Every structure is written in C-alpha cells, then in structure tokens.
Amino acid sequence: MIDTDTTSPVTRRFRPPAVPQVELRGFWGQRADVVADRTVHILYDRCVAAGMFDQIDPDRTAPGKVVSYDGGLMTSQMFWDSDFGKIIELASYTLFRKPDSTLEAKVDAIVDIYERLQQPDGYLNSWFQRIEPGLRWTNLRDTHELYNAGHMIEGAVAYFQATGKRKFLDIMCRYADYIASVFGPDAGQIRGYDGHEEIELALVKLARVTGRTDYLELAKFFIDERGQQPHFFDLEALQHGRDPAEYHFKTHEFSQSAEPVRDQRKVVGHAVRAMYLYAGMSDIATEFHDAALETALEGLWADLTTRKMYVTGGIGPSRTNEGFTFDYDLPNLTAYAETCAAVGLVFWSSRMLGLGPNRVYADIMEQALYNGASSGLSLDGSRFFYENPLASRGDHHRWEWHRCPCCAPNIARLTASVGSYMYGEGSNSLAVHLYCDSTANLDVGGRKVEIVQTTEYPWSGSILLQVNPERGTDSFTLYLRVPGWSSSYTLSINGEPEVVAMNDGYLALHRDWTRGDEVRLDLAMDVETIHAHPFVGDDAGRVALRRGPLLYCLEGGDNERPIASLSIATTKGAERVALDGAPGIVGLRLSGYADDMEAWGGKLYQSRPAATKAATLTAVPYYAWANRAAGDMQVWVRKAPE
Question: What is the pLDDT of residues 572-604, one digit of tens each?
Fold first, then answer.
C-alpha cells in the first residue's frame, strides 16, 4: 500500500485487483485458456520470425531498418520493445493460469537480453541503442520512446505479480528512475511528454506495486505538461533542426496535445493514444482526487459515447489518422475501429470506475470488451483483426501477422487479464463490475474476502455470488452492477428476496457478511433492437441486435440469401440456437423478410420497392464473426415496416 502525507496522493478510492487474485472459469476462462494454450506461443514464434530478437539482443549484429511504411516515415521497429513488453505481460498472466516452464524460460531469456542491453545510466530502448544510436530524446513526438518504456513497465509489473521474480521489475525501476531524472520541471530537465501516451498509466501500475509515490508524481507531471504553451513538440523540433510545420499529421490534436488536458472536452486525434491518455488521467484523478481532471474526463466521456462510438464499443472511424473525425461519422463498411482502440476504451472505462461504482462506465467497459475488442481475436486464438468494420462484402479476413503487430498482443493480454477488470477494491467495500464464473480473493481495507461467482453469463443472466470473509464474519458494502441493458432484475440474499436502493446503477448491499452467504442476482436478458441517432446516416432505417452484453450480426454462411436483401420483422419469439462450426456459442433465430430478387428483374432502379417474402434470419455474436466460411456480414440490418 502506498504511504500518503499532505503533499502526496491521497488515500485510494477503488483499485482493481491483480490478475492472480481472480481465477476465471466459464466464458472468459475458456477464452483465457485459448490464449494460454495457443496465442502466447504463436506471438512469441512470430516475433522470432519477424527478426525482433536480432534488434534487442546486443550479442547479435544489429539488423538495421527492415520494416518501413508510409513512405519511410515510420517503422514498427521503433516500437518493437513495446510488443515484447505486451508479450511478457501476456505470458505472465498465462503462466499464473497454466504454469509452463518452457514459456517461463523464454521470458527469462528476454529479460536477460534486456538486462544486458540496459545502459549504465538505466536507459533502455533497442531502437535508439542499436539502430539509431545518439538520437535518444530528440523526437518524442514521433518515435514512441516513452510509449515503449510504458509497455515494458507493465510487462515487468505483471511478471513480478505472476512469478515473484524481481529482475525485470528492477530493470524497469532503474529505467523509470533515469526517466525521472531526465524529465521534470527543474532546470536542465526536459519539460515534455511522448507523442503516444502510455507511460502515464504504466507509472501508476509501477507505483502501486512498489509503493513509491514518486512514480505517481512523474505520471502526474506527464499529464500536467501535455498541451502547455509554448508547445513542447514545436520547441523540440526547432531544437533539433526540424521545421515544426513539416508535421505529417499537421495538428497536435493527433496526440491530444493541442491544449492542456484539463481544458479538453472533445475527443480528437488518434484513437488509441486518446484512450491511453484518458486512462492515465483517470488514474491520476483517482490517486490525487483531482476535481479538474474529473470534470475534463466527464466531458470527454460524454463526447465519445454520445457522438463518436460504434454500437460495438469500437472507436475511430478513419484509416487516415487511425482515429476520430467529426460527430456522428460512423460508417460501417469502411470503419477502422482498431482493435487496440477498443482495448484502450476498456482501459479507460475501468479506470473511471476507480472514482466509484457507476454503471455509465461499467456498461461501456462491458460493451467494448465483449464486442469491439474481442472481435480482434479469432476463436482459436491464432488470427487477428486490426480493423473491425461493422459490415463486410466478404473481403475482410483475419490475418496471422501484421507489419504493425500492436493489436495481437494487446487483445491477448486483455483477454488473459479480464479478472482484474471484474472488481474494485475499496477501503470498506467491494464493487462487482463484470460477471463471470470465477473465484476472486479480494482485499477490503486489509481484510481478505473470497467471492465465488457461479453463472453462465453472458449466455444467461442468472448469477449466484457466495461471499466468504476470511474472518468468518465481516462488515462491508458489496456493490453489484445492474447493467443498463437489463429491463428488470430480482435480488435475494440467502434465499430471501431483497429490495435495495440503486445508486448510479449499482445495488449497495451493506451488512455483516458471514462465510457462505449467498447473493442471487437474476437479470432479464431479452433480445432487443438498437436504433442509432438520426444523424448517423449509415444506420437510418436499420437496427442492431443485442442480447445481454453481446451485439449480434448476420453472416452470409448462416443465411441462404445475401445479407443486404434481408430485413428484421420482430424480435418477439426469437430463439437461441446452436451455430454450425461454432460450438458453445449461442446464436439467435428470428423472423424477417428477404427481398425477392427475381421479381426485381435485374434492374438497377424502379419506381416501386422490392417485393418481399418471409424469411428466417440467423444471427451470430459480433465477436465471433469471420471465424468460419468467408462471406458477407452486417451489424446494422434493415427494419421491416411494422
């Protein structure tokens, strides 16, 4: 626990448990097993095949620039260290779940490489040590230097928590100490920050695991400096002989640095960078009780969720800037919706819950987690999406590797660590944000409490929680989320119906808990249609299907006709069905219509609408699309007239 005083961060509100505190079963347990059994090994092997070890290992000949794109402007080699950081983090979570001495030895070997690579002053970046030596800290705007450090810090924290081994943690503490000596407000220090946010939230993790408040102060410095005038990136460019106007992305909105963070209310620029920044801001708001940051975050949240977010929780419609454009610009077929961006939205949402249980944030966390993020990983754990469109003509396929491989380890590490997003630990309370068959060993102000969830969620809304205080009896508040998508619920404790006031979408159960107490929460889980705002032109006259936390889509392989010719009549009588080639996944069968293409006569236009005939439609969860036969797909389907 972090010590506090009058000048240090104040006592915590809610913090997430570490991954090893939650044993997943059920839906997320199955997904975590796939990642542990296949994905982590696949990603390691593909790093080898891509030549990444040639870059980081000082005992090998440096490879030079081997990956280049955007006319030579960028190379993913600049952030290969970040990919190793994410893979170490992923491996840590899987090692806790499934001990694997071979995998652990591989991680130890990577750690040994970084130990040999680290310079005496603590600096550690394979690109600037082996490919472009002598250029460290000369182009923070473009080259991901602190971003790399952030992901490596997160990997080190995870590896320590999973294995108890301190070597990588100590390496990254030395690097963080060096960074703290370079950056800051004092004379001779750099008053700057990275073009790609990440270091901020990583330093908070490092502070929480080490108990060192100076890491929190450094994270706060990076947050506070962003967007201040004169603009750091302009000064940096001039200092190193570059013209600030010759910036590929033209505007500092791309990196959310056009204005100080406490003045920001519009979500702009690169979607992943934005989510990482807001996640870091949320952590700092939680640790320092910073009201100005909270106000900014609330405004940014409203802007994103009411004008700029796909129904899947995907964000960032544009390929051009991998990010945001203008309000209600949410095309389906060309949606970029990068997997990393939806993962980042889960990060941000979960950290907003550090301020206290609030369904506004937990519902979006769940929406992005189950849909916009999870679609990025195939059911067998071997293939990935970088972009996640909401419609396809059958030409959007999963890939095995990418020249910019950031999304693969990102969605994999999220999948393996879902347990840490399920709960919030307070000084005298626990919050349950997500439901999954699982066992959690949690901390309530220094007292241990076990929570055992028994449920088939997300296929069923019936949840049984057993509460087991270590003391046998303990008094605290248990917050249970009632999702906004559920039209009704029932609650009972030890078999007796309970009526409890709801606050911000959570039921607050305050009582003297005794080992073995059982709480049953039954959530109505109906099939419903979702309508988009009238300004979202692509979705006019169309609906999306939702059941519980899952968004559904139509795939060509499950329906006998082209998806574009189908319309939904009603969700009444919708049936749960098994899907061919997707065992264990619940599909939906419902009534609709199909355009009579023969009656259309092959014309492009005519003066009357197409004749229709009754049809049965089959829908698949969006996260599971493109795992079977290739074909067309739509999330937003025409709604037949009543």
Answer: 999 999 988 888 999 999 999 999 988 888 899
Start-to-end Cα distance in the chain: 59
Q: Which two tokens stand for residue 312?
A: 């899947």
Long-range CB contact pairs, 590-594, < 8 A, 24+: 590/527, 590/545, 590/616, 590/617, 590/619, 591/615, 591/616, 591/617, 592/566, 592/567, 592/568, 592/616, 592/617, 592/637, 592/640, 593/566, 593/567, 593/569, 593/640, 594/561, 594/565, 594/566, 594/567
Structure tokens at 422: 């399920």
Residue 292 to residue 490: CA distance in whole angstroms: 38
The residues, ordered by sequence, that sit 6+ positions from 246 with a Cβ below 8 Å of its Cβ are none
For 385-412, how does the pLDDT look when each residue is reduced to its tens digit (9 = 90+)? Answer: 999 999 999 999 999 877 778 889 999 9
CA atoms within 13 A on the CB side of 189: 17
Cα–Cα distance for residue pair 297/279, rounded to 1 Å: 9
Pick the closest to residue 160 from 151, 169, 152, 148 (CA basis): 169
Q: How many residues does the chain have?
A: 642
CB burial string 132-143: b at 16+ within 10 A, e below = beeebbbbbbbb
Task: Please indicate, yes or no, if residue 8 is contained in any of the structural domains.
Answer: no
Q: DSSP per residue over 510-559, as a string?
A: EEEEETTEEEEEEE---EEEE---TT-GGGTTEEEEEETTEEEEEEGGGS
pLDDT tens digits for 536-553?
999 999 999 999 999 999
Please report, for the domain that includes residue 32, its CATH number: 1.50.10
Confidence of residue 560 (pLDDT cuts 50, 70, 90): confident
Domain end call among 421, 454, 475? 421
Clarify whether residues 467 and 596 are in a common domain.
Answer: no
pLDDT of residue 73: 56
- 182, two tokens: 């370079």
Provide the CA 108 distance to its chain's centre, in angstroms.
27
| Cβ–Cβ under 8 Å, residues 155 and 85 | yes
Active site members = 322, 406
In whole angstroms, give the CA distance from residue 72 to residue 70: 5
- Domain range for 510 is 424-523
Are 239 and 373 contained in the same domain?
Answer: yes
**All residues at 6 or more sequence positions from 280 whose CB lies less than 8 Å from its CB, including other chains:** 197, 200, 201, 204, 219, 222, 223
The pTM of the full predicted model, rounded to 2 decimals, is 0.96
Domain end position, chosen among 507, 523, 539? 523
Backbone dihedral angles phi then psi of residue 196, each to the nearest 5 degrees: -115, 110
Q: How far apart are CA 545 and CA 555, in angstroms?
A: 13
Q: How far from 503 is each of 224, 430, 479, 482, 578, CA to CA, in Å?
A: 32, 15, 9, 10, 37
